[in-house]
């Protein structure tokens, strides 16, 4: 500034004019230096950093670059120049320094915010992120960053120590607790969900209270985002997963088997002892040949040993069509390529009721994919319904309008109408 004034003084200008022109020239000079420094920072230094990042074997630095951490950092260069040039303009030094420092604090907050985003993205690239998500903690760190940054900015603008503002916030703690209630509850819930491994990104959860039935796609500080199977999105408060019950299907997915639990209802009036003709037909069925032969030998030996009169089927032991049918279904499932043979496989009778005799199939498919599972289940029951008449059995069904019409027609025909 003194050099500029000395140069202008040689032109015979007044002192006021020299002061005005020297200030203008100095402003232009500082602006040119800032533009030049910004150009060097972005076009030379930043491009060099980008080149280095793209040509090394690490991937995490590419994520930092994608989050524009270095781009935001380059904004500090002009502000630093302006801050240290403020002493040139003595009447406005304090104001310029305060404005430049405020800008640098805001840029620093933006840089740290971008770093937190980059850290979250780097962590998500590892499989452990699905088991131990940290997005909630990142959001807490951002809240602290913005609160501290805001306090520092305000204290810089009013020229007070940040501790004075912090002490004043103590009196507002009740208000702050009310404002950040959901965030505090979400933080506590996030810690419990993570430490107890209750839910992970990618888990299939079911929570009827919130109409949620689908895959978890994101876990944040306040919410758990679920993409339902109808492609809608349900947002569940994080603390609701702690306070309310929900079903997590992860165990099924990890086990490699999905449960089939369904009944076929047998009309009890079709249940009977097996006749000789039926037994001969059963022997021709691949899955029953050995079973029927073995069971007949056991039954005959039992009846012979006890000298039971077998002329009446009520005496002694006999094969029943429903018993043979139950064994057939069991052997059919044992030989089915889509049934998990290492898991529970039961074909059992339940208590008979108004709908006949329930014959329950309890097994596991070896593919947990929903579409495949439904297809396997449907194929199994298609087959069971189709083969039931072979065993002299009828599936129970409440009378329909067609049944009543058929009954009416047969009645009219028998009466000669």
Structural shape? rod-shaped
- SSE string: HHHHHHHHHHHEEEEHEHEHHHEEHH
Note poorly predicted spans: none
Q: Which class best fits the helix and strand makeup?
A: alpha+beta
Number of strands: 8
The CA-CA distance between the termini, in Å, is: 124 Å
Largest sheet: 5 strands, antiparallel
Strand line-up in the sheet with most strands: 4-3-2-1-5
Description:
By secondary structure, the protein is α+β, with helices and mostly antiparallel strands. Among the domains are: 2-125, no CATH class; 258-272 and 320-402, 2-Layer Sandwich (Alpha-Beta Plaits). It has 18 helices and eight strands. The strands form two sheets. A five-stranded antiparallel beta sheet has the order 4-3-2-1-5. The longest helix is centred in the first third of the chain and has 40 residues, at 15-54. It is rod-shaped and about 140 Å long. The relative contact order is 0.06. It is a multi-pass membrane protein. InterPro entries: LSM_dom_sf, MS_channel_C, MscS_beta-dom_sf, MscS_channel_2nd, YbdG.
How do the helices and strands line up, and which of them pair or pack?
Elements: H1 2-9, H2 15-54, H3 60-66, H4 69-73, H5 76-85, H6 93-124, H7 128-131, H8 135-158, H9 162-170, H10 173-179, H11 181-195, E1 204-207, E2 212-219, E3 223-228, E4 233-237, H12 240-243, E5 247-248, H13 250-255, E6 258-266, H14 276-283, H15 289-305, H16 321-334, E7 346-349, E8 357-365, H17 370-387, H18 401-414
Antiparallel strand pairs: 1-2, 1-5, 2-3, 3-4, 6-8, 7-8
Helix pairs in contact: 1-2, 2-5, 3-6, 5-6, 6-8
